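Subject: for your reference before the review

Hello V.,

The reviewers asked for a structural picture of the protein, and I figured it would be easier to keep everything in one thread rather than splitting it across files. Below is the amino acid sequence we used in the manuscript, unchanged from the supplementary table.
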Amino acid sequence: MPEVKEDEIYILIITGLSGAGKTQAVNCLEDAGYYCVDNLPPVLLRKFIELIMDSERKIDRIALVLDVRGGQFFDQVNQVIEELGRDNIRLEILFLEASDEVLVRRFKESRRRHPLAVRDRLLEAIERERQMLEELRGRANFIIDTSNLTPRELKDKIISLLGENKKSRFTVGVMSFGYKMGIPLDSDIVMDVRFLPNPFYDPVMRDMTGEDELVADFVLSSPVTKSFTRRFLNMLRFLIPYYIEEGKTNLEIALGCTGGQHRSVVLADYIGKQLRNMGYNVNIRHRDIFRYKVEE
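And here is what came back from the structure prediction:
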């Protein structure tokens, strides 16, 4: 990701020709953790930045789409950009363009109207838009011609240009659950761990949960558990890089036992910890454990 100093805001302005891929660019940056705003009138840009700086929530990477849809307000965009030369604001411009032939084809395929095509024919509207954006294009830090790019290739190009690391923006969710309460609907990988030794049948551990050390030691010390976790982690080591390469930004892994109290909790904690050690961003959640935990 772009290096952002403490108390500095990085603003990426996304602009360019209509139909050149700005929507795909916004989706890509939103997945990468940017705070995205589409079609913000330039006159409101200064006020927007002030609100961000005064916000208690730290937002240091912002992507704004500014283009001719702003109508009469768009004429102010170059002046506003010049006025944003404050020390704590780092501003860069990403300009997307494509050939006339490709733009015409895209508009015809999508059946959408060009924002300047109210009076002009489509080709005339595209040419007029090029003229309106000429100065902004000259200011651009990054220019991407999307004529021959698929949405996936455009996404990879943006990530590469901005120095975004695919692995750093990829998140793995590891959840424990009980089959009694149903399989989580948002799961990508579901693993049934009901074949592991069950602490429920030990009166000492029955009312405990997988977060208790005694239960965790019992489950993890089993030769079957050791063999399973080794094989399962090897599978994840193989799979996750391909999910990342495919452009997926999160993976939901669900581990289920009968009630979601013992075995699945232990396994979710263990697998999540090992994935963190591999360098992944991991969120661990125990969906059904609250049914058994007693408030102190």
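For the response letter, the relevant points are probably these. Residues 209 and 261 are 5 Å apart (CA to CA). Residues 171-291 form one domain.

Happy to draft the paragraph if you're swamped.

O.
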